[in-house]
Amino acid sequence: MFETAESTERVILLGVELPSSQNFDMSMLELASLAQTAGAEVVRSYRQKRDKYDSKSFVGSGKLQEIAAMIEADQIDMVIVNNRLTPRQNSNLEQAFGVKVIDRMQLILDIFAMRARSHEGKLQVHLAQLKYMLPRLAGQGVMLSRQAGGIGSRGPGESQLELNRRSIRHQISDIERQLKIVEKTRSTIRDKRLESTVFKIGLIGYTNAGKSTLMNRLTDNGQYEADELFATLDATTKQIYLKDQFQATLTDTVGFIQDLPTELVAAFKSTLEESRHVDLLLHVIDASDSNHAEQEQVVLDILQDLDMLQIPRLAIYNKMDQTDNLLATAFPNIRISLKNPDSRQSLRRQILDEIEQIFLPFSIKVGPDKLYKLHDLSKFALLDPYDYNQASPEVSGFIAEKNKWRLEEFYDWCDELGPQIRWLHQLR
Fold it and tell me: How confident is the model at residue 74, as a pLDDT?
């Protein structure tokens, strides 16, 4: 696998559109953004329509000279192909062009390697790189260090290629073993979080939609945010107070993208596992992107694969300051610009409205000897304003189904009131 050079590389993008291709224009625009995120300068974009990919040269032998002339004229350092190349196609294209050739999958793997911060994230990316590299060793002269060296570590007559393949397989087995340990630990932490009565919110959305910016707005946390793809790879969970003492957790996850490399699917979905058992999903959408409808569908398709469509969702159309004409396709929604400091209050209000729709309404008269318990109740329930000066105020609000048992401690103040409270729950 080629390493990304520190200096800016001049690249040409190459894409082949088949009759069955979907969202091809969007995919090519994404490829340009991916290349720029990796530090490349996109000089030119070349497209071709074909009935099928050429098995030897991908674009067909007749176009190779034309593209090779572009590469020489524009002093191109690298060609990035918007599709997965076979090892044979990759080798033939490099021979024809005389420059480095990588495909979309390798580019995404490279970016993930740049962005991974956590131990698990680095392991997942390294595993994906090795699985991608394994069938592409032949003819590339890849030299890898052997984990098992010395006398007795190899069989007679093994070629360097066979040794390299064995080394990669050993590394894959070792990383998979480490990931099982990490996953067990993460699963234990997640189970404890599920047992918690705290309301859980998950952030989802296409890459570069503004999820990390939203998290920073709500938490005042220094989560890394940038106008680039895959700025965040590792799941991050923070605690927030939405109203008075009412607590919630907010989890940021990796951004979605179409045509995710199969080698990264497992790593990608493992980060999304952190949002699989949340109470509310905030779907952040880049309103300024002309392809936002297609991006929304990519997100929904992945949610369906993960069996997460049943989770309540609030669509957040971000970057409204960069668009004048938005045709919303997701409901319910809120339209804001997270760069605006005033967006925080409107966002919190909308989130609270959605939580009220999820929770059960209640109304209860609190006796003087139980007033002190309202402080603890406000950690789990959204309480409406009430008169503190009253000896026995009537308190109304909203509470989660799993937490409604907490109201039982107020029932014994008035025997007639208890059945009424329970009736309100049943009514909802």
Answer: 94
